[in-house]
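Suppose you are handed only these lines of text.
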Amino acid sequence: TMAHSEALLVLENFIAGKFVPCSSYIDSYNPSTGDVYCRVPDSGKEEVEAAVKAAKAAFPIWSSKSPLERSQILNKLADLIEHDLEAFAQAESKDQGKTITFARTVDIPRAVYNFRFFASSILHHTTECTEMASVGCVHYTSRAPVGVAGLISPWNLPLYLLTWKIAPAIACGNTVVAKPSEMTSVTAWMMCKLLEKAGVPHGVVNVVFGTGAKAGEALVCHPDVPLISFTGSTLTAQRITEKSAPHCKRLSLELGGKNPAIVFDDADLSQCIPTTLRSSFANQGEICLCTSRIFVQRGIYSEFLKRFVAEAKKWKVGNPSDPTVDVGALISKEHLEKVRSYVKKAQAEGARVLCGEGVNSLALPTGNQKGYFMLPTVIAEVKDESSCMQEEIFGPVTCVVAFDTEDEVIERANGVKYGLAATVWSSNVGRVHRVARRLQSGLVWTNCWLIRDLNLPFGGMKASGIGREGAKDSYEFFTEVKTITIKH
Ligand code: NAD
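From them, the structure of the protein bound to nicotinamide-adenine-dinucleotide can be written out as follows.
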């Protein structure tokens, strides 16, 4: 169905500082209404070729600017996005289905902060130097930008994750060709409109819109793009690894998770319950860091479950533009069906669905009847081997199970292919450190969730990724190091 009331929004690629139309387009849906409201360029080899050429041409001048000059431009861009924060938040909410509140308080402020953060951090790096007095030598390392960086991002936190790559890439002096998700391209296109005013020279940031199979793969296979920074699913990462192997490309891969929360019987439930609800259902559960397996120590299991389910039922699902709504729409019809199928599977296996999908009814406003909505869903008594406990669901579904001992819960928490984020709830400091060390997880939050210092490494183990992002980590990824020896 087509939205008749408003004209379709038509996006264009941004190449060499200019918006350029594409020969074919993809429909993009408003997840909260089910209407097509936007057309996204269906770019392929040709468009990627033009963008890489522009990025290559811009590299010599951009890479020779001082870090301070680049830093000032990044800060200006941050100011411009912040100035339009409300418009960006509205666009992100409409395009992705997330609540306006989440877009206003998380997505867009973080996109602004990504530029500010790397504008600052790029000024503070030092390289190493060693001395070998006995042979009259000093050795030092020098770092230089690599060239044209290919950046590929997912649909769950569109501008937030795209800028988390663009900011460090250009701060380090690289030029970029970015490909946002074809399902959420609008805010990247809006950002392109601000680049010139911020002082970003033509060709430094190029954005090609389109699908992964066409535009994404053309970027991954392009011989003049020596590094690819990718955030998305593990399956796509495997494909990217294969396709880039003949070129020996440098890869940064931020992938999926199956994140455990471990709740010991000495946990402060007044903190743990509201935070674990957020970690399960924030952004419709569509955050790579979302909790989807909650292990609760047996002594407090029934109390936890009772309180958790009662609170989960209070989460309001509905029109994302309503500021009182907690859960918006899922990204697509297909994704909604996939998430629902996990709940059905769990039921068929004998698990108990305590609230949400199939249990409670969902009343939607008139305009949202065809949107992709789902109630926060809590499943209990599900076996560790079940696909609901093993696979990333990426929706508002969380499983709660009981455990007895520390050793047991660590083994079970580690018993999945992923290793991205974990939360541990306990007031015993010694236990918290012990458990954190033994969890196979790139991030461990104890007695909290999602509090990040961007200085420190972010990323996953096992099938959750390769490489880390952060002040030092992104700097190392986006630069090439050289060791130089001087004999006097
Ligand atoms: P996806 O892998 O389907 O797509 C991600 C991006 O890759 C999109 O831009 C897509 O067009 C592109 N792509 C798809 N196939 C490609 C190919 N063959 N070659 C090149 N590019 C290709 O992932 P998604 O569904 O958009 O996002 C959800 C996934 O992202 C979840 O698994 C989630 O956990 C993960 N994620 C991870 C992090 C993290 O930091 N670890 C953050 C957010 C999301």
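What can we learn from it? The two ends are 75 Å apart (CA to CA). The CA atoms of residues 111 and 160 lie 5 Å apart.
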